[in-house]
Write a structure and sequence with these properties.
The chain is an all-alpha fold. The protein folds into two domains: about 100 residues; about 60 residues, no CATH class. It contains six helices and no strands. Helix 2 crosses helix 3. The N and C termini lie far apart (about 70 Å).
């Protein structure tokens, strides 16, 4: 039974980080390529992953282990292996570069060195969350996902309003 719970824990963790890291890169792609139906589909999956993260927060919140310690207890292998694997996967991730660049590009530029520094900054934040956040890991994911859902809806409404105003003003010419 512990292994099954651990698998659910990992699935939820991956889902939380997929929504947190991948969302910034995936959101415009879904919206621009598939229109409003793509945006709605993306928000539905984001809402499901957020719900999973919230539920997992309740379960894991009762544990007194850090993420790596919990992994070590259940799997009986050094938890640092999981952290190293996560860092390698995230470092190679397209979305990690996009998230870092979207925040740091005005300061670092978009050249190779700027991309490298932004990836390292994002990875450092993720490793801190994975290694030392205890039960707050899923809370961080859930809050981030809920904020993103709110901001996405706000952006969708705003862009619709802007396009309507532009249409009305173009009719007046």
């Amino acid at each position: 039974m512990k292994i099954k719970k651990w698998e659910i824990y990992l699935i939820t963790l991956v889902a939380g980080y997929a929504t947190g890291i991948g969302t910034l890169g995936l959101f415009p792609q879904m919206w621009l390529k598939y229109g409003m139906s793509g945006l709605i589909l993306h928000l539905v999956f984001l809402a499901m992953f957020t719900y999973l993260a919230i539920m997992e927060t309740k379960k894991i919140g009762e544990s007194d282990y850090f993420f790596a310690e919990f992994y070590e207890k259940v799997v009986r292998k050094p938890g640092i292996i999981l952290l190293i694997f996560s860092v390698i996967v995230l470092f190679l991730s397209y979305y990690t570069a996009n998230v870092g660049l979207s925040v740091l590009a005005p300061y670092l530029g978009t050249e190779t060195l700027g991309r490298l520094i932004s990836k390292i900054v994002v990875l450092a934040i993720i490793v801190v969350i994975l290694a030392r956040a205890r039960e707050k890991t899923f809370t961080i994911m859930a809050i981030g996902s809920m904020a993103f859902i709110f901001l996405t809806l706000l952006l969708a409404v705003s862009s619709y309003q802007i396009s309507r105003i532009a249409e009305i003003t173009s009719l007046g010419k």
